[in-house]
């Protein structure tokens, strides 16, 4: 009966530009998935926390934002940022406070080449299956800890420091998450990225804790270590040699953009900000920004938003909705596989709404 349905409460933050279009599209797809499956449903609270709102009222989020978010099971985020507001304001007033207060210390970025994508590297054009990674990014400390200072401002003798903070607790929990992720994948392989030849303190601790945790996974997860510079080369030349990748806040930020580019389009890639303790809602978002250049034209690619929605379903289901998430991915790929239901960035001419309708129709068939 409908009363036995599990209801997931979603905090929706569409944000700016195409964030608004793709969030609307994702909600349609999520509702279609729930309706087709029949065992669960979603309710949404939409928050107008955007750069547009910031320009009008002077803040992104109200004082009680954290309490409001905690009344939900997950956060679905579109994109935030607008040319009139410098990027660091939305970052420091909204994105980072959410990640920190919601204890989202893991950022996960799955990357593979969806059907219909044009990969820029010839090996991947021929064998798209060679690229199938999960990048696990430390999301709470490291190079983006925000510690440091400036003296003499803009003077000729200006001095600035930027401290990277690494804690054993912070490293250990991200390594554990990465090993657990690798353990659940068919290839059971974890590559750890570091720069411990040049940075001799934080990165050395990072290495040491990695090898400690690795002992617990002896014979279960294969592991290796890469210096970040060599890693960029390996990602391009030997994509098939890797599976799960763990790196610091800064390194993983850069490597995941490279990964998204190798996979063909920025409009496709998803990202999850997770609180593995599940005491706070986790946040799901496509990696692309608000794309002011195409905003309001109805042409944004919603695939990254749909993939993020699939990851949200996976997370909410705690293992019980994996099949549903896989079916949604199948529906998405059936649509990207057809030239006539691809958006412009994928070489087609379909609009956001057409792609959304096509995915909803596929869900009815595959779920
Ligand atoms: P941010 O600084 O928020 O990470 P950005 O300004 O660096 O974002 P995006 O807003 O992601 O970058 O846009 C980069 C380019 O990619 C733009 O030309 C944009 O039109 C294009 N783009 C981004 N997302 C999409 C999408 N979903 N569909 C089609 N094109 C997209
Ligand atoms: Mg931008």
TrEMBL record:
Pfam families: Iso_dh (PF00180). Its EC number is 1.1.1.83. PROSITE patterns: IDH_IMDH. Keywords: Magnesium, Manganese, Metal-binding, NAD, Oxidoreductase. Transmembrane segments: none annotated. It catalyses: (R)-malate + NAD(+) = pyruvate + CO2 + NADH. Gene3D superfamilies: Isopropylmalate Dehydrogenase. GO terms for molecular function: D-malate dehydrogenase (decarboxylating) (NAD+) activity; magnesium ion binding; NAD binding. It comes from the Eukaryota. Its cofactor is Mg(2+); Mn(2+). InterPro entries: ICDH/IPMDH (IPR050501), IsoCit/isopropylmalate_DH_CS (IPR019818), IsoPropMal-DH-like_dom (IPR024084), TTC_DH (IPR011829). Residues 9-359 form the Isopropylmalate dehydrogenase-like domain. It is an enzyme of class 1 (oxidoreductase). The keyword Ligase does not apply. Belongs to the isocitrate and isopropylmalate dehydrogenases family. This is D-malate dehydrogenase (decarboxylating). It comes from Friedmanniomyces endolithicus. The lineage of its organism: Eukaryota, Fungi, Dikarya, Ascomycota, Pezizomycotina.
């Amino acid at each position: 009966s409908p009363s036995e349905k599990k209801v997931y409460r979603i905090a929706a933050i569409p944000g700016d530009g195409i964030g608004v279009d793709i969030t609307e599209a994702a909600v349609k797809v999520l509702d279609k998935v729930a309706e087709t499956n029949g065992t669960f449903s979603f309710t949404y609270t939409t928050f107008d926390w955007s750069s547009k709102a910031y320009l009008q009222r002077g803040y992104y989020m109200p004082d009680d934002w954290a309490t409001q978010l905690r009344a939900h099971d997950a956060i679905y985020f579109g994109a935030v940022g607008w040319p009139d507001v410098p990027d660091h304001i939305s970052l420091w007033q909204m994105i980072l406070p959410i990640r920190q207060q919601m204890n989202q210390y893991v950022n996960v970025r799955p990357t593979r080449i969806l059907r219909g994508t044009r990969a820029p590297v010839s090996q991947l054009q021929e064998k798209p299956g060679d690229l199938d990674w999960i990048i696990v990014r430390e999301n709470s400390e490291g190079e983006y800890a925000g510690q440091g200072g400036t003296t003499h401002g803009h003077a000729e003798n200006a001095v600035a420091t930027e401290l990277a903070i690494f804690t054993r607790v912070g490293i250990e929990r991200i390594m554990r998450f990465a090993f657990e992720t690798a353990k659940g994948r068919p290839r059971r392989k974890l590559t750890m990225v570091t720069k411990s030849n040049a940075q001799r303190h934080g990165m050395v601790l990072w290495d040491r804790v990695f090898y400690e945790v690795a002992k617990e996974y002896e014979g279960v997860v294969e592991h290796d270590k890469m210096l970040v510079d060599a890693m960029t080369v390996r990602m391009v030349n030997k994509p098939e040699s890797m599976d799960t990748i763990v790196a610091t806040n800064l390194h993983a930020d850069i490597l995941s953009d490279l990964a998204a580019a190798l996979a063909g389009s920025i409009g496709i890639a998803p990202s999850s900000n997770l609180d593995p303790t599940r005491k706070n809602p986790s946040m799901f978002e496509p990696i692309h920004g608000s794309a002011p250049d195409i905003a309001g034209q109805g042409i944004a690619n919603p695939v990254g938003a749909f993939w993020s929605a699939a990851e949200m379903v996976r997370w909410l289901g705690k293992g019980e909705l994996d099949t549903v998430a896989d079916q949604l991915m199948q529906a998405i790929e059936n649509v990207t596989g057809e030239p006539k239901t691809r958006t412009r960035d994928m070489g087609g001419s379909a609009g956001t709404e057409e792609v959304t309708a096509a995915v909803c129709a596929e869900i009815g068939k595959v779920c």
